[in-house]
Amino acid sequence: MPISAYLRSLRERVGPAPLMVPAVCALIFDEHDRVLLHRATEDGRWHTIGGSIDPGEEIADAAVREAREETGLVIEPLRLVGVYTDPPVTYANGDVVLYISLAFECRIVAGTPHVADDESLELRFFGVDELPELHELDRHRILHALKRQERAEFFLTPSPLPRGEGGGEG
Fold this sequence. Notes:
The protein has a single domain (5-147), classed as Nucleoside Triphosphate Pyrophosphohydrolase. The protein is 21% helix and 35% strand. The protein has 3 helices and 8 strands, in the order H-E-E-E-E-H-E-E-E-E-H. It has helices at 5-14, 59-71, 136-147, and strands at residues 19-29, 35-40, 46-47, 49-52, 74-85, 89-90, 96-110, 120-126.
């Protein structure tokens, strides 16, 4: 599904201006710790599985839905891997999107991966040592997931102020 009715209605109001959009990334691993990627119709590049969250939708449910729409798989999110601010994406029609992505490590519950929508050209599992050319953030998400840490990853820009001098009341 290229664009939800919700995003379409926003685009009618703001045109191609940058929109911040909450999104999910489903990092789907097989029993050999290979990650499932799709090669996108939009740009011919390899990407992780995911997409935007619908209004009112639970975040983990969005990961399940996106995986089903793109791969035909039924998945189970196991844990939150991290929260990421993606670089701006400019689509072929000129729309600019700033995704705020929540990445989940997921396992396959049922199904066989296959191209299930018009967003993908192909799907394939890749080991960490054989990953194709990816956006650097996609690579980071995969590597973060394989660390299997209990806490979620996130990036924090170092503050020029020493700890405790941030101006807050605490």
